[in-house]
Amino acid sequence: MSRGAEFHLGYFTKAQHAFEGWIEWQPLELWTTTITSLQGQGHDAPFFLLRNHASGEYFAGQLAWSANWQLQFQRDLKGIVTFRFGPFAEAPLRIIAPGETVRTPEVHLGHLSGDLDMAVQAMHTHVRRSVLPPHPRGTEGLIQFAVPGDQGYYAPFNLDSAKKSADVAAAIGAELFILDAYWWDVTGDWQPSAARFPDGLEPLVKYVREKGLRFGLYLEAEGGR
To answer: N or C terminus: which one in the chain shows less Cβ crowding within 10 Å?
Structure first.
């Protein structure tokens, strides 16, 4: 990048805050800038956007990894910027056996000139076309109704309230009913909560399908925990 250019770094705020998928901007100072996430839950692929104000260029990057990670930039007096982006831990992430091999997560990069919307949409388009598996036929573009698990902080989150939500979903013409997070008690076990769903999820699945809706289930398989 050009000498004397002004850079701003936008990055995945899950590194430091509890906001899911938010982006935060800061000037890219000389020498070393490090962003680290040790929360063990990325929700989605960590990302960055590096903006060169002098040229209008953007570099966009995403790490195909959702657990702990670190992003580090080096900027020198000549205007040269380098970076490293990958899994990170204070202790070894994994100990491999003799002869065993592992594959490191991919980093997806994009370089373009334009505005912020163009940069973001270009990265989304790349991920949809080249990274994410295609939807099963007949499931594209369904109208979804999600029951947020965090409503349990404010109202009951159990079989009865989920059935009432299914009634609303059917009434407004939704096609897919999704039971969101915390239908379980212990993250990682993925067993229905004995208190909120004492008979498992089968009664709810049956009820939702009788309403003419497909049933979907939120699962943090990528949460890194």
So the answer is: C
**In 161-185, which positions are buried (b, 16+ CB within 10 angstroms) versus exposed (e)?**
ebeebbeebbeeebebbbbbbbbbe
CB burial string 192-208: b at 16+ within 10 A, e below: bbeebbeeebeebeebb
213: three-class secondary structure by DSSP: coil
Nearest to 5 by CA among 60, 49, 57, 48: 57
In this structure, the strands spanning 107-113 and 57-63 are: antiparallel
Q: Which residue has tokens 């040229």?
A: 55
Whether the pLDDT of residue 126 is over 50: the answer is yes
CA-CA distance, 198 to 194, in Å (whole number)?
Answer: 4
pLDDT at 3: 47
Judging by DSSP bridges, how do beta strands 69-75 and 81-87 pair with one another?
antiparallel
DSSP SS3 for 127: helix
- CB-based burial of residue 13 (10 Å sphere; 0-12 exposed, 13-18 middle, 19+ buried)? middle
In terms of Cβ atoms closer than 10 Å to its own Cβ (0-12, 13-18, 19+), residue 107 is middle
Residue pLDDT, tens place only, 150-183: 665 567 888 998 999 999 999 999 999 999 888 8
What is the edge-to-edge ordering of all strands in the sheet holding 144-147?
Answer: 144-147, 176-179, 214-217
Which residue is associated with the tokens 């379980």? 184
Strand order in the sheet with 31-37: 31-37, 69-75, 81-87
